[in-house]
Amino acid sequence: MIVHKYRGTGRVVVFFTRERGKVEAVARGVGKPGSKLASLVEPLTLSNLFLAKGRELDHLTEGDVINPFYGLRSNMRRFGYASYIAELTARATEPDLPMPQLFEALRASLEALEGGARPDIVTWGFALRLLGQLGVGPVLEQCANCGQSLTGQLRYSPSAGGLICGDCAPAGGSGGIALSGMTAGLLRCVATFPIDRLSRLSCPPVNCEEIGQLVRRHIEYHLDFVPRSQRFIQEMENSGARPDEGDEQR
Ligand SMILES: [Zn+2]
Questions:
Q1: What is the 154 CA–ligand 1 centroid distance (Å)?
Q2: Separation of alpha carbons 59 and 38, rounded Å
């Protein structure tokens, strides 16, 4: 959830809900000490919310926290990826457009991250689901350009919409990114495995980084933005800080 400043001690908060999709609501008085709404507007918090219709925006009146996901805040790497997932959801979705499957994927992703799953794989798995739900998911089973089976040197072309075959690669132009058959196979797995089982996928870091690059390029091309939190996670990965947990899990 992204919190915007608002007059005085109130805030405009972006929530992603199961029933209504993205909702922007005013939370009055959350800046005051002891506000009963303060815990509900913490980023990365799962809650039951009561929203009252306002003139322009709804008003958050009360609610109950179901899962504060404390485990995401105590680890920079998990927090970075979880923030990326939240920002991607907030920026890619339309207000008041219910997307219950995406809501469940979001919840499963945050639970997996908190449970120690590899943050990168979970994040790319979530992003692929989000793209699919928005109707711009990558074509991975046949050539995105000619529709034939994938043979020859594979490339990935965000503008063509996914994997392209060896015959189409020149037509893919400079947008095509070469990738190995192994990365292509793992990309299909990341796109289709249930999120709570992605950690069992044996994906070497080099292939996972390639998958991340393809997903990020696909997002930039089809959604036309780069999440601000992307820089944070890339700097964290480039610094070689791979401190945790989970990386050894299969
Ligand atoms: Zn082709």
A1: 9
A2: 14
